[in-house]
Design a protein that fits this description.
This protein is about 65% helix and about 0% strand. By secondary structure, the protein is mainly alpha-helical.
Length: about 70
Amino acid sequence: MEKSSVAQRIRAFRKLKGYTQNELADLLGVSIAILGAIERGTRKPDSKIISKISQVLNIEPDELVAVVAR
C-alpha cells in the first residue's frame, strides 16, 4: 500500500516540531496505535483529528492536506 501524502506530511511535521509519536498521541488524546496507523497511511484521518494535529503542531490544516496540482 502506498503511503498517503497526508500520512507523510503528518509524520514529517511531527518530527520537524520535535515530538515523538507518544508525545503527540498524548497531546491529541488518542492512542499511539491510532496515530501510528494514521502515519502509516492505514487509517484515514478525519477532519477533527486533522484540526487537532494542526493546532498542536501550530500549522494550518491546509499544510497537512494540501493537494499538489499536476
